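Structure first, sequence second, as always.
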């Protein structure tokens, strides 16, 4: 029986050599080629790029050969390249889209592939469903896979100069230069090396770079800019008296921020900071867009700033659409994705890091100082995510739907939201979201309260509720 390949929130990811093989990749590439032809955009050509993982160049060559076999011209990046850079190249070259070989922040044994259409943000189900259907056809009959190894329709290109020029248009390099910032950068051996550090250097920062060599093992850990992974960076920032520590994940689309004190700031803390900074320095009307799992500090701050708030399901494709089609000035998700109106409608960890540096330069205050001032105005928000293993996630969700808690750590539940999963919002604003994983036997529970004690109580309630059905 042929393997079934499904695209998740942002593409297909699998273990190299087990499921992520050249044969399966060729079938997916044929699925993408068939979809591009079906949509009538094949004559525009496609961008092909990849992250620093094992066999990335060879996988990219495989994709290019299949595209060429289908008569589709390819521009293939000269080196491993961040996802937002490839999305920018789609717009610059008016391509039909980008085929990106990446497993983002997943462990080194994984690889992945995703398609970013001509609108330069993650593909919607109307496209990924067709890719899956065409891929299934290619898997069941490999003779359907067309390929051309001659290289006649394949050209190498360097998307770096145009993207760095775009950053210089978006970010006030002169203000940053005048602040004389000292920044530590951890590229986590990922695709952002030569991009994030170079942009900061061009903006006049004193930069020390770590993880600046390509390493398919990412230093023996996940290329994830989490608090744990950036602990060493935080120590260096504090010890050296740097203004900031900045990082990006394996494919450069997620950010990591360390305050000058050495404290790691979560995405749920950084997103409101950047929203405040952007609204004060760039736009004065519009809305902020966040996923259903992202902090409600965005809402409290937006109200103070006179902005509306849009809530979307989890997945940057929804934020990207809002940035393209609505008055949204910024989109953010709790996993570390952030996008800006007028820029590429894709999450961009490099841009997010530079916006934080710009904020520090313009305010003369550290991110933590700005955060504390904002908390004085709109309140404190503390959040957490639990990944709880459940044998039958559908049964759990049915149970929560049928008999949801009527209180969260003592506060009455006054609202239920079903944008994505089941979200319970209490009278004082604390909330709990139950959302099943689409690929694993687990449920993700997102929690937010106004103090640590309430958050801990809510965590205990969530574990008891989930555990009752095990």
């Amino acid at each position: 029986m042929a393997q079934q390949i499904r695209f998740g929130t942002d593409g297909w990811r699998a273990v190299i050599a087990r499921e992520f093989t050249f044969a399966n990749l060729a079938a997916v590439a044929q699925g993408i080629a068939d979809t591009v032809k079906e949509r009538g955009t094949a004559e525009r050509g496609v961008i092909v790029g990849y992250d620093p993982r094992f066999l990335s160049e060879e996988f990219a060559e495989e994709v290019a050969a299949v595209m060429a076999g289908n008569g589709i011209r390819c521009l293939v990046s000269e080196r491993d390249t961040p996802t937002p850079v490839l999305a920018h190249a789609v717009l610059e070259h008016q391509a039909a889209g980008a085929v990106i070989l990446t497993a983002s922040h997943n462990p080194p044994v994984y690889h992945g592939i995703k398609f970013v259409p001509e609108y330069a943000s993650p593909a919607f189900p109307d496209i990924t469903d067709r890719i899956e259907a065409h891929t299934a056809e290619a898997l069941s009959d490999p003779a359907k896979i067309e390929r051309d190894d001659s290289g006649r329709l394949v050209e190498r290109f360097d998307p770096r100069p145009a993207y760095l020029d775009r950053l210089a248009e978006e970010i006030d390099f002169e203000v940053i230069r005048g602040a004389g910032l000292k920044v530590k950068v951890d590229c986590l051996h990922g695709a952002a090396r030569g991009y994030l550090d170079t942009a900061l250097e061009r903006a006049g920062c004193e930069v020390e770079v770590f993880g600046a060599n390509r390493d398919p093992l990412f230093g023996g850990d996940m290329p994830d800019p989490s608090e744990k992974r950036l602990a060493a960076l935080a120590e260096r920032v504090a010890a050296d008296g740097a203004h900031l520590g900045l990082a990006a994940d394996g494919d450069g689309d997620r950010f990591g921020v360390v305050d000058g004190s050495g404290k790691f700031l979560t995405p749920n803390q950084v997103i409101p900071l950047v929203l405040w900074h952007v609204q004060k320095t760039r736009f004065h009307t519009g809305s902020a867009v966040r996923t259903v799992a992202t902090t409600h500090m965005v809402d409290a701050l937006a109200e103070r700033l006179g902005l509306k708030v849009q809530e979307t399901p989890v997945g940057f494709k929804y934020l990207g659409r809002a940035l393209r089609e609505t008055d949204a000035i910024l989109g953010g998700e709790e996993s570390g994705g952030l996008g800006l109106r007028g820029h590429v409608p894709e999450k961009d960890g490099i841009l997010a890091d530079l916006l934080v540096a710009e904020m520090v330069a313009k305010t003369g205050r550290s991110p933590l100082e700005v955060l504390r001032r904002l908390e004085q105005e709109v309140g404190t928000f503390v959040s957490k995510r639990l990944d709880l293993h459940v044998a039958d996630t559908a049964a759990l969700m049915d149970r929560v739907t049928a008999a949801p808690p009527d209180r969260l750590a003592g506060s009455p539940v006054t609202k239920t939201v079903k944008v994505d999963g089941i979200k319970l919002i209490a009278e004082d604003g604390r909330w709990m979201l139950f959302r099943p994983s689409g690929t694993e036997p687990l449920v993700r529970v997102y929690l937010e309260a106004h103090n640590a004690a309430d958050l801990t109580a809510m965590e205990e309630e969530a574990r008891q509720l989930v555990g009752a059905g095990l």
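Margin note: The longest helix spans residues 22-38.
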